[in-house]
Amino acid sequence: MVSGETPTRAAYYRVMAGALPPETLVVTALGNASYLWAAIRDRAENFYVEDAMGLALPLALGLAVARPDRRVVAVEGDGGLLMHMGGLVTVGAASPPNLTVLLIQNGVHAASGGQALTNAGLDFAALAAAAGLAGARNVAGADDFAAALGEALAAPGPSFLALATAPDLEVVVPPAGFDPVVTRRRFQDAIDAPRYLPTLFGGGRLVER
Amino acid sequence: MSAVHRPSEILETLERVGMSAAVAVPDGWLGEFLVRIERAPWISLIRATHEEEALAIACGARLGGARTALIIQNVGLLTMGAGMVCLAQRYRFPLLILASYRGTPADPVFYHVPKGRVTEPVLRGFGLGYAVADGARPIGAQVEQAATYAEEASSPFVLLLGQEDVQW
């Protein structure tokens, strides 16, 4: 739930920046979810999902399944999750132990100017628990978040924390413009993802770097 | 009727080209095909709730380095439009999309026909590469070509499949 004492997204992100090990792969949703994270901790291991509302979580699920050796953190918004609620069910079914979902619950569509959500009062942690994410919980403060995030990262997942957050409607300017293909290639280079060797060079298959 | 079991040929091809992840949404033709994939030790299957969600999962798996196939009915090509344009095409994810082609003259089911009629115009509207599987040619080679095209073009590529291709 969002109240007058509700922490900002920046407060949560500062906790994340201090707590996440450098090898953590972070997938952030559209708008300030990506722009602010890039401003605070731009790294090659970040994958910024611009636009494509509601698809950060399912993308993070696919990444977590493909890279079971790395912790994957997905930062999704409540509006995005409402748009693709089924993704939560699929996360519960696939149950990747290396996935942590952080839900920015600010009660509005912040990226589109603060328009009202269809239902801002949902208990997302209860929904996540019903979808099979045992231990899903609501978080209402930065101190509480620091402890909850530490527990989530230490235990097998998937884990889910719904973060009560004050809306931030002013667009944060990221440190650099996002080029989607550069974002993807930078990320894949950073995680040593196999690359495709073209048929012209005798390949036609993925090869290890 | 071909002497070769075409769904088995597709599975053998997926294994041979190194597909290690598949994401699927069911269709009547795909039921047993997906069960066979689910049982195969060389590939991980994720069953999604919606085709646009499935597309994003596939993008994530490919981002992580897994060669990935998306297996759906052609209606999913209609429902995944935003994700196709804003995610898969914008970030240039190479994905093989195997879609059962329902509602064609070979599958004149009244509720599939509207989907069959618009599938190829929609794909052309997306600017998406695609091919319709040729029932007279071995299906394995066509799947391999589609998978290769996706990688070489760094883009999704759709292979539209008939009933004999995928129904076990």
List the helices and strands and how they pair.
The complex is a heterodimer of chains A (209) and B (168).
Chain A: H1 9-19, E1 25-28, H2 32-41, E2 46-48, H3 56-66, E3 72-77, H4 78-83, H5 86-94, E4 99-105, E5 108-109, E6 115-116, H6 124-130, E7 137-139, H7 142-154, E8 159-164, H8 180-190, E9 195-197, E10 205-207
Parallel strand pairs in A: 1-2, 1-3, 3-4, 4-8, 7-8
Antiparallel strand pairs in A: 5-6, 9-10
Helix pairs in contact in A: 1-2, 1-7, 3-5
Chain B: H1 6-16, E1 21-24, H2 31-39, E2 44-47, H3 51-63, E3 68-73, H4 75-79, H5 81-89, E4 95-100, H6 113-126, E5 129-132, H7 139-153, E6 156-161, H8 163-166
Parallel strand pairs in B: 1-2, 1-3, 3-4, 4-6, 5-6
Helix pairs in contact in B: 1-7, 3-5
For the structure shown, list the relevant keywords.
heterodimer, A: 209 residues, alpha/beta, six-stranded parallel β-sheet, two-stranded antiparallel ribbon, 37% helix, globular, B: 168 residues, 8 helices, 6 strands
How far the N terminus sits from the C terminus of chain B, by CA atoms, comes to: 13 Å
What is the spatial order of strands in the main beta sheet of chain B? 2-1-3-4-6-5
Instruction: Indicate the proportion of strand residues of chain B.
Output: 15-25%
Given as residue ranges, the uncertain stretches of chain B (5+ residues, pLDDT < 50) are none
Order of helices and strands of chain B: HEHEHEHHEHEHEH
User: Main β-sheet of chain B: number of strands, strand sense, barrel status?
Assistant: 6 strands, parallel
Strand order of the largest sheet of chain A: 2-1-3-4-8-7
